[in-house]
Specification:
The chain has 6 helices and 7 strands. It is an alpha+beta fold. It is globular.
Length: about 210
Amino acid sequence: MRHAAFDRPLLRRTAGLRFWRLLGTGRGRSTTPGADLRRWALLAVWRSEEDLEGFLRASPVAGRWRAEAREAWHVRLLPLAARGRWGGTDPFADVSARPAEWAGPVAVLTRAAIRPGRLVAFYRSVPAVDASLRDQEGCLRSVGMGEWPLARQATFSLWRDQAAVHGFAYRGAAHRDVIARVRAHNWYSEELFARFAPYAQEGTWDGSDPLTA
């Protein structure tokens, strides 16, 4: 918990770190409200692989995480597609290395800033979508994440391939219904959706390698 505050000034001064968010997570695979105070995530956009390697090698932030973590999983991602804003900016707009084609596993990031007057409706809709996500064929892992309790929420999920992502997004009744209500009632003041190609990973997530397994 203390690192959630004390790591932020160091991250702001990290060379080559173009965009970052330090995120709390939910319990298990669920995206419903409820925090796991032992599990944290860092989303980072780097100027180069060399900057990332320097951070992992020399940063006190990375060193503390290695020393204190019972389990860690790192994945390197190239954007396949992204739309929307996070804090007023598109974090992936200037990433030039984008695969022309990708047939492997896919990572998906969704993030939204929920309008205060829409919080009740949003969280009433979450359990049905959450159940559908956890039961969806082709979903390898999922986790809810957040910057602020309740109002600024994100999800990160891993999928067998792009066809599995498409099946959940467009054929799942619960998800389609929520998307329609989001658009009709203007639930979000800001949102972001991005798909990525995972090209390297290290460690385990819930005791196993989520991509090669």
